[in-house]
């Protein structure tokens, strides 16, 4: 096995490979274990939340650090250790994580120190109650090996035995490695004996240990011989073995053998040796043969992906005192430099940490600078020194910087001052002040305010102390700081004194004019006339109130307010602010300024501060009211929002004194009814007997029978009451017949009631059902006729419809009916659907089914050319590999590489080799240098394996990605366990557990919990401490096997079967909340509304307060709307809103539109009220609702009401951006499409009135665009003649973008070009026009447009050119310009960026 | 409670009436140097560079306010901003654009 991780050499995998793979679980380690039985209902304190949050942050940082760099900083590790300890008893994987990190992941720490760290953690966590299992002992062993820690393996085994922990294969392997480190072959053999007795496999890891063992016992011959021994045992030597051998030579200083071995391996095995060679360099350094390093180094290709490993090598070398060798390696990394980024920071930092003498540091800095690797190494070293509190070094470096003419700034002293302040070391502070002075740095006001004065009781003491210690340097900074400092401490009298005393001094410094005061605050100089200003009011003028914008002194003022309890003082100052215009120079005026100030004052106070000062704030508000101070409503609501979490209802009430008042409304909502067959039958007969009209009851009965799926009876009822049947009843019947495969009857009914030439149409679902059943029964022409009819009657097509089309096409493809697929596909695509890739894939599937690979590949490329989509690629790859068709394989690979890049092509190839069991080839692909983990793709394939139950494939995926850069190992194993879970295979799960240890991965809690769950369910003992799972709705808490099966079936889109299991289990078991959600959602996806509602009822009876999640309830609403159950849909919407769940935008939109179509004003109004506060959150625009209400009025034939409702909204919408009812495009489109000409005219008049009388142009723009859409060019032209100048460009662009998203819309843009060329951005317009024609596949027009742009000298964007080039190539036309070289994505991004930047 | 607090936090962030947010400010510069740098594009009204009182280092980001929108445009005319060898990351604060969003009905 190719495995770098299980090797006997302790310092072996210092770099990357192992390190990167491990610690993704950390962000899951954040749960504080709860003591069972004593769970108290306590609100989490703010501090605790904060701590948890910080802990999360630290763990994420650790995760990132390991993944990206293969190392951890010791400080970070310790921080996390302390956090874990603080939370109480550490969990199993937390302890594992910490132990695991004490080895080579700490390249910056000396070996004995690392082991000490591990022992310290081990003991401490044990004290806290940690339970150790085999994985922990194995991790400790690994740490020993990595740290070259000498220990007795027999004692170790005894300790395990004592703790009643069973050693496993990994334990033995590592013990053998330990013996071999000491050259103790006898010891190793003894353990080998154990392993043989237990029938454990002897892996490559053991053999590589033995290589080392023999060598260290002085027998190099035997060491070399191990390679042939292992081959005889059927184990191929891999990188581990060769590394072991190379290290043997390195320790002996045998450069020739190293060279020979490397060359041999490179020749025969074709490994990438770089990482191995870096280990050899380290061994040579340690063994004292630096002279051979250069030779090895030259063989290494320091590519980008090797960088983390190379950096870790440098660090390790420095740690071991080989800093010159490390620096040498560092300089070889130079060619990797990109741009003018600085290099070597990590190295310099580590040198600082290791207390390298300043001369050495200076030398490194000079060399880095000469090599142009670093632009400013000295300031960087200064920063490192400051960060690590090395004040002596910092001062030395600053001196060197001064010598070299680099600038020194006041804030460089701050980190030093902070440290001395914390240590209460006044001497240190004085020293820093002196040094900075000597270095010629004049310290500023911030330095004194924030870092010097804080050490003293008041500024007077500070001044005296500074003077006494010879570091009083009279500067402006010092003076102003004195004033500020006293003010901020609320010692207003002191401030006044100081300010007056300073006055003369400052004046002398600057102007010499006695009556002028110069104050430097916030880096601005203010000049203030202070003549005779001794009053309180003048003090504020002087200090807080320079006649400039309020924000310059707002903060100081707030600070002053907060440190004072004098409410009347607060009020007086506020009044001053409000009434003295000097302080409100900015346009909004005093109302705004005071509102803003109050808002900030409240904002600056914490909840507890607000609570403590509640009384005073109330008095304050009352006094402001008395002073007739008013603030804007918006500021008032802002303040209320701030106050809300502080729980101060009285204060909030009093805040109401400040603004003008406002009113609110509420509303209610109707509920649903149910039907019952037998009751309806009776009712029908009774009515018939009484000779009353039966139409309605009959319709209800037919519907009820359809819902019961009783076709026989429904048809009988129909026959019996034929004359009274209405259209709706027939439609339901047709659908029922389709469901029951009764194609004849369905078509008969359809032809009879809904003939092609009648204007009456069925709804989409019923047409689809017909098409499906016709296609299934081979009636292709009929099916196509139905599709054409759908187009002619303009039947609305939704995502669901598209999914049904796919089902129909795919069914035909599976039957291998090429012609059916092609003809149906063509007709369907011509319906003018939104872009949906999935519809095209049956075009390929059909050829795969017929095993015609050339045709399949051709279809794939055609799809890409025509629709820009790659489909069925994986299946094609697999089939080609199975067939061994190298030519076609090459062809498809080249194709993908050129379109999507090599990385994608490699992944596709990798997955295909895995899928077809060609693991050797798969390995070669995934080990391509530079390939990184692509999470999305790996997930895709892993999930695919899980859902199709391919254990072997998945296992190989996990194994082969072991060394893949940035691959989340825990996640890979989690996938494996998921599949074990579905299969109930505990043995496999247990083997996965051993593998996890062998690879030294620390599993996330989620993974451990799943593993424990599998073992428990299968009656096995769980060999580790089970973490408590945080998410109660995780799949692990599933009550039983059935529940899991339901979930799996739902995942596989087999909702019907899942439903059957649900029915069987109903009454016997209760399910988990989430399972209901999943099942309901799956049923709705399959259009099984009744079943979904059934499940929902069951859930509601079993779980108190059950509410569907957002996705499921939104789907439910959409299904109900589709079936016209609007009342039910409203009820569902209300229900979820009441329980605090937000519906999705499509659900709400569908409901609004359906209600509008029905003219149901009452419910629209109710809906509007329900959505009042959340339209923005859902993303439903205010315009849509207003348009819908107007449309409803229109449907009720009340045009006046529509205009009366809409017009004022549009007027206020134009003035108030928050209440944004602005456009009427939806309304216009609807009335125009439905041919409601009088309404259209009426709204048109309204739009023109708004434009001419109110200067509101958006509606008239909408009108114009609707004319354009409806091809009413003359109307559009006449409109534009009147309002041409007011058309908004932005709306035009939106309009064009939307037009260019579906075929057949080029005309619209052509019309715009004809009517208003002067309003159009030509580049954008031609881009969209070109896109329209490309979508239409209209080659001649595309070419004509291109010629036109050339003639008009319009510069097209590269994206347009790229798209054009691809289009022309696809249709076999020459490309008359150079095709832009990058991918589509690149140009799209470029365009988006440009748009972002300019918008 | 948590939601209200979050909302409050969001409000706190959004109300900053600065024009530009600058990230990756090198540690060597203080607000003085930042002001000097940005003054070439127009009159800088304010520059807020928060320092961590616990470490004495600033937080590597700052906010800038200019006198006029034109000054801000000037800044963004320049492709990249390099200060003391470090590339600054600039983001325009969005408040100036509020209320200009396009509304679309479905």
UniProtKB/TrEMBL annotation, chain B:
CDD domains tied to this protein: RRM_SLIRP
What is this protein's record name? SRA stem-loop interacting RNA binding protein
The molecular function terms in GO held by this entry are: RNA binding
Keywords of this protein's UniProt record, alphabetized? RNA-binding
Species of origin reads Athene cunicularia (Burrowing owl)
**Residues of the RRM domain:** 18-106
| Pfam families for the chain | RRM_1
Q: Which PROSITE patterns match?
A: RRM
Q: Which InterPro entries match?
A: Nucleotide-bd_a/b_plait_sf (IPR012677), RBD_domain_sf (IPR035979), RRM_dom (IPR000504), SLIRP_RRM (IPR034152)
- SMART domains in the record, alphabetically? RRM
């Amino acid at each position: 096995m190719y495995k770098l991780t299980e090797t006997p050499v302790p310092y072996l995998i210092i770099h990357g490979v192992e390190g990167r793979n491990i610690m993704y679980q950390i962000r899951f380690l954040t749960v504080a274990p709860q003591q069972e039985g004593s769970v108290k209902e306590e609100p989490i304190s703010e501090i605790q939340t904060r701590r948890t949050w910080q802990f999360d942050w630290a763990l994420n940082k650790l995760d990132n650090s390991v993944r990206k760099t293969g190392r951890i900083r010791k400080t970070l590790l310790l921080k996390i250790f302390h956090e874990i300890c603080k939370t109480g008893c550490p969990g199993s994987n937390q302890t594992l994580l910490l132990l695991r990190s004490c080895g080579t992941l700490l390249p910056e720490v000396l070996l004995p120190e690392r082991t000490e760290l591990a022992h310290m953690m081990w003991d401490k966590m044990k004290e806290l109650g940690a339970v150790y299992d085999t994985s922990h002992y194995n991790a400790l062993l690994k740490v020993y090996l990595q740290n070259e820690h000498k220990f007795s393996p027999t004692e170790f085994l005894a300790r395990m035995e004592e703790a009643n922990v069973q050693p496993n294969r990994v334990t033995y392997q590592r013990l053998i490695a330990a013996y071999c480190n000491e050259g103790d072959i006898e010891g190793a053999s003894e353990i080998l004996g154990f392993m043989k007795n237990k029938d454990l496999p002897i892996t490559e890891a053991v053999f590589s240990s033995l290589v080392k063992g023999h060598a260290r016992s002085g027998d190099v011959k035997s060491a070399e011989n191990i390679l042939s021994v292992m081959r005889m045992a059927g184990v191929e030597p891999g990188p581990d073995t060769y590394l072991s051998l190379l290290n043997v030579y390195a320790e002996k200083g045998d450069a020739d053998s190293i060279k020979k071995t490397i060359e041999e391996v490179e020749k025969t095995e074709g490994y990438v040796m770089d990482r191995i060679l870096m280990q050899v360099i380290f061994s040579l350094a340690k063994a004292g043969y630096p002279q051979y390093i250069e030779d090895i180094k030259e063989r290494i290709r320091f590519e980008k992906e090797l960088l983390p490993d190379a950096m870790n090598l440098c660090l390790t070398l420095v740690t071991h005192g080989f800093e010159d060798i490390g620096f040498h390696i560092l300089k070889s990394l130079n060619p990797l430099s990109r741009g003018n980024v600085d290099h070597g920071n990590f190295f310099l930092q580590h040198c600082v940490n290791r207390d390298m003498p300043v001369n050495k540091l200076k030398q490194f800095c000079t060399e880095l600078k000469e090599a142009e690797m670093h632009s400013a190494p000295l300031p960087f070293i200064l920063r490192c020194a400051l960060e690590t509190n090395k004040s002596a070094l910092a001062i030395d470096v600053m001196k060197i910087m001064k010598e070299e003419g680099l600038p020194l700034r006041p804030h460089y002293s701050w980190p030093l001052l902070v440290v001395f302040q914390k240590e209460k070391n006044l001497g240190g502070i004085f020293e820093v002040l002196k040094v900075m002075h000597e270095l010629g740095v004049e310290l500023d006001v911030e330095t004194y305010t924030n870092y010097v004065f804080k050490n003293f009781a008041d500024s007077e003491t500070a001044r005296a102390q500074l003077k006494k210690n010879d570091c009083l340097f009279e500067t402006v900074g010092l003076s102003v700081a004195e004033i500020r400092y006293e003010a901020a401490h609320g010692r207003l009298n002191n401030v006044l004194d100081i300010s007056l005393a300073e006055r003369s001094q400052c004046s002398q410094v600057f102007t010499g004019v006695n009556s002028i005061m110069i104050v430097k605050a916030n880096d601005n100089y203010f000049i203030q006339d202070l003549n005779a200003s001794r009053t309180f009011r003048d003090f504020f003028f002087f200090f807080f109130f320079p006649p400039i914008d309020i924000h310059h002194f707002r903060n100081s003022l707030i600070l002053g307010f907060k440190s004072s309890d004098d409410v009347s003082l607060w009020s007086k100052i506020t009044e001053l602010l409000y009434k003295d215009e000097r302080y409100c120079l900015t346009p909004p005026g005093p109302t705004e300024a005071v509102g803003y100030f109050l808002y900030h004052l409240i904002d600056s106070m914490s909840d507890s501060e607000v609570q403590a000062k509640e009384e005073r704030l109330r008095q304050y508000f009352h006094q402001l009211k008395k002073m007739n101070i008013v603030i804007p409503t918006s500021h008032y609501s802002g303040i209320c929002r701030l106050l809300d979490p502080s729980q101060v209802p009285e204060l909030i009430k009093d805040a109401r004194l400040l603004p003008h008042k406002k009113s609110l409304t509420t509303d209610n909502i109707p509920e649903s009814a149910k039907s019952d067959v037998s009751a309806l039958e009776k009712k029908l007969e009774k009515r018939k007997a009484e000779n009353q009209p039966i139409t309605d009851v009959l319709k209800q009965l037919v519907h009820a029978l359809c819902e019961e799926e009783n076709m026989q009876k429904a048809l009988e009822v129909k026959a019996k009451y034929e004359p009274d049947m209405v259209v709706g009843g027939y439609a339901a019947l047709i659908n029922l017949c389709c469901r029951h495969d009764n194609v004849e009857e369905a078509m008969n009914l359809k032809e009879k009631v809904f003939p092609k030439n009648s204007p009456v149409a069925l709804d989409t679902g019923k047409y689809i059902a017909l098409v499906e059943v016709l296609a299934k029964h081979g009636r292709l022409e009929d099916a196509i006729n139905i599709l054409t009819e759908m187009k002619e009657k303009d039947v609305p097509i939704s995502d669901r419809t598209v999914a049904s089309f796919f089902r129909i096409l795919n069914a035909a493809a599976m039957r291998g009916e090429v012609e059916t697929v092609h003809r149906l596909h063509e007709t369907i695509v011509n319906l003018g659907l939104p872009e949906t890739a999935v519809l095209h894939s049956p075009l390929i599937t059909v050829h795969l089914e017929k095993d015609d690979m050339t045709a399949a590949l051709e279809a794939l490329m055609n799809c890409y050319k025509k629709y820009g989509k790659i489909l069925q690629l994986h299946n094609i790859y697999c089939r080609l590999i199975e067939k061994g068709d190298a030519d076609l394989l090459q062809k498809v690979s080249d194709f993908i590489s050129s379109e999507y890049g090599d990385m994608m092509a490699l992944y596709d190839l990798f997955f295909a080799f895995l899928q077809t069991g060609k693991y050797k080839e798969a390995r070669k692909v995934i080990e391509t240098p530079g390939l990184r983990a692509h999470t999305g793709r790996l997930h895709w394939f892993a999930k695919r394996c899980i859902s199709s139950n391919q254990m072997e494939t998945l296992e190989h995926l996990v194994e082969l990605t072991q060394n893949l850069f940035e691959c989340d190992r825990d996640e890979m194993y989690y996938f494996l366990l998921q599949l074990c879970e579905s299969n109930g295979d505990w043995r496999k799960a247990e083997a996965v557990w051993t593998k996890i240890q062998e690879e030294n991965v620390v599993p996330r809690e989620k993974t451990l919990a799943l593993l424990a769950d599998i073992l428990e369910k299968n009656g096995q003992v769980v060999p580790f401490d089970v973490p408590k799972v945080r998410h109660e709705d995780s799949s692990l808490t599933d009550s039983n096997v059935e529940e899991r099966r339901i979930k799996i079936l739902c995942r596989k889109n087999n909702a019907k079967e899942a439903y059957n299991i649900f029915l069987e289990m109903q009454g016997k078991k209760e399910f988990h909340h989430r399972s209901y959600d999943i099942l309901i959602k799956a049923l709705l996806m399959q259009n099984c509304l009744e079943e979904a509602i059934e499940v929902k009822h069951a859930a509601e009876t079993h779980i108190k307060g059950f509410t569907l999640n957002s996705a499921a309830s939104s789907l439910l609403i959409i299904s109900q709307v589709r079936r016209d159950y609007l009342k039910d849909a409203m009820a569902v919407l209300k229900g979820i809103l009441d329980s605090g769940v937000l519906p999705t935008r499509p659900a709400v939109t569908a409901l609004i539109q359906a209600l509008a179509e029905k003219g149901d004003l009452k419910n629209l109004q109710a809906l509007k009220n329900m959505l009042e506060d959340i339209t923005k959150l859902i993303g439903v625009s205010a315009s849509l609702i207003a348009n819908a209400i107007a449309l409803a009025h229109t449907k009720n034939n009340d045009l006046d009401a529509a205009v009366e409702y809409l017009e004022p909204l549009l007027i206020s919408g134009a003035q108030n951006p928050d209440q944004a009812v602005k456009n009427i495009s939806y309304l216009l489109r609807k009335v125009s499409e439905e041919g409601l000409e009088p309404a259209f005219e009426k709204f048109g008049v309204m739009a023109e009135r708004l434009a001419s009388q109110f200067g509101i142009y958006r509606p008239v723009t909408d009108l114009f665009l609707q004319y354009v859409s409806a091809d009413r060019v003359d109307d559009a032209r006449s409109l534009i003649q009147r309002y041409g100048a007011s058309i908004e460009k932005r709306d035009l662009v939106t309009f064009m973008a939307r037009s260019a998203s579906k075929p057949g819309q080029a005309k619209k843009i052509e019309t715009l070009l004809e009517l208003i060329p002067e309003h159009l951005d030509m580049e954008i317009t031609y881009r969209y026009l070109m896109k329209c024609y490309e979508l239409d596949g209209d080659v001649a027009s595309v070419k004509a447009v291109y010629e036109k742009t050339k003639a008009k000298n319009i510069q097209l964007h590269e994206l347009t050119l790229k798209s054009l080039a691809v289009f022309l190539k696809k249709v076999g036309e020459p490309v008359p310009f150079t095709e832009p070289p990058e991918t589509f994505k690149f140009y799209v991004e470029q365009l988006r960026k440009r748009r972002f930047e300019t918008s | 409670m948590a939601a209200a607090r979050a909302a409050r936090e969001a409000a706190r962030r959004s109300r900053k009436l600065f024009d530009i947010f600058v990230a990756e400010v090198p540690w060597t510069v203080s607000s003085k140097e930042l002001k000097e740098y940005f003054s070439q594009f127009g009159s800088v009204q304010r520059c807020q560079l928060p320092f961590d009182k616990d470490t004495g280092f600033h937080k590597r980001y700052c906010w800038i306010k200019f006198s006029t929108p034109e000054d801000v445009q000037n800044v963004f005319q320049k492709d990249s901003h390099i200060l003391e060898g470090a590339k600054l990351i600039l983001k325009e604060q969005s408040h100036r654009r509020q209320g200009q969003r396009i509304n679309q009905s479905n």
